[in-house]
Fold each of these.
Amino acid sequence: MPTCPHTAHISAAHGVPPALDACTSAPPSVGRTLSFTLALALSVLAGCSTTPTSAPVSSLPQTAPQTPDRDYFALDNSAQTQELVLYALGLLDTGYRFGGRNPDAGLDCSGMVSYIVEQISGRKLPHNAASIADRTRPIDPSELQPGDLVFFNTQKKRHSHMGIYIGDGKFVHAPSSRGVVRVERLDNRYFAPRIDGARSLLESS
């Protein structure tokens, strides 16, 4: 006997005997039984196969709380980043000292940055370039603005040196070579290939 593919699927999915398939010829004596069984099967199928356009509120999965942006260190306003630049320029020719964190004793690269930030904001950053990089908001080096921080890989490890960007492709840093705080260009043949990050000291706008 010919079987309707659609109702064959109904029969298989819902346990309707193939003999009661709607496309199968049946004796008149079973007509009423066939009609009732088919109607029941179709009603069950309708309930299982319809996908609601939206679930009831009570059955929706609970949405995980939104994770806030990481709590990066940030200055209060852009005026403080301008102060950062002016303060850095005021430290030019200050002597270098490994581990130094004040101008009288000498400064190293991270000591210079943490010292200036503390002077203008009263808050402290770590005295370590990699730790400062971890605490401050990453930006693309192409987005550098005066008062941002720029990092270099100078010891075959990330963020091993740093400086303060002052604009016009230049930065102030405290290098161990030649022993004083000075201005350098980012396109310097030594520093350009060693740039490995930039950070902003302002919150994301």
Amino acid sequence: MAERMTGRILALDVGAKRIGVAVSDELGLLATPRTVIQRRSTEAALDEIVRLAQIEEASLVVVGLPVSFDGQLHGQAQTVQRFGGRLRRRLAALDALDALGKPGVPGIPLVYADEMLSTVRAEERLRAVGMRPQRIRERIDAEAAAVILEEYLERRRQAGGQAADRAGDENQGNEEDETR
């Protein structure tokens, strides 16, 4: 799948109760924690992510995929893939605009990126700036999404600007609807 090289990228750290969201700048240099979505229902979470993708004028959505230390995709990764499959279908239905505001490539592509230890690194960062434990709990998911996005952007830079997703489309897995 061809990836648009300009525009903001939205990154997600998908959990059972919360989804952390981060966004890049238009040049793909910086990743900023954006918000945490409380996952009261899958449908509401999907609606909110699509809304944020539109507000941020995202050209790509990166979903953190919890690849195990053995390199396999176990239970949580498969759950994230089902969620990602549902989100991919919703994003594909959107009409994106190009940089000039004219109708462009339909939809917003979605890729997966390895999120190994992103929450650990996020907590280390928040502790390093002296954040209180209660505040860390409130912000850790968005910070983890920023870690995922930073690593994705760095891999993309190292790859010469091409898509740099570890898990990519070849590991989409089963995208049947998740029951919730």
Amino acid sequence: MKTVQKILAAAALLVAAPLAAAPADVSAPGPESMAVGPDGTLYLGNIGSPVLARARPGETAAKPFIDLTSDKAAFLLGVLVDAPTNTLWVCEMMSMDRSSPMLKGKGVLRSFDLNSGAHKLNIPLPDPTNICNDFVVGPDKALYVSDTSNGKVLRLRPGARTLETVIQNSSLYGIDGITFLNGQMYVNTVWSNALFRIPLDAAGKAGAPVQLLANRLLKSPDGMRAANGRMYLAENSGGQVDEVTINGDRATITPLKTGLNAPTAVEVHGDTLWIGDRGGNKAVAVALRK
């Protein structure tokens, strides 16, 4: 009996344990995208300029880190840290035609040394018009890139300098967030408010996208990341960030942080979920339960 009582008491303490305090928010202009380094440093893209900002742990305002003005770039979209290769990936947008709902631009996949910001790769996306939006490193160590306006997922294999097409599908027009959870690729579409799983075989060949049935309508799903067996999703016109639980072909959307002003990016570091709140000009920190 005493053993049972001890177990119950320990469980009660665990449930009641308070969340660890989250770091202070970080001010940054128009953080469309963001990434977090191994030491907790934030890297933030800017929807309004070609200057990538950085905030070291404890800093409450991001400072310019990589300035691509000399490239005549317009602005920056995806940002990703690949710690094992000490690489910072950036989607550099050279132009964007906003004259029609089907946006068309010209994007370049760029990479830099994570610490110094020294240039590494410069790879234009293959189609004449495109949107280099977001990316993720897969289980095979390749980089997978979402091309929003062409409904494509592109892949850059380790050591390669040429992008290859993994899949192009009409259901993926508006593809934005991309991540891997439990070895499976998941993407969302910001234009049609949908979630998909894209099956890949052992050789990396893609099957037809499988749309997931969500428990409610999404509002402009944007940045999406998975960490510690959980998936997180920003809804930019919904003003919130969610945890997504997937069971087969169904997705349960549970709000984690509401009241945001156009959140477009999420990234997990330790017990903290960082949110790029583009409309609020800041990165917001939310404590996560273990």
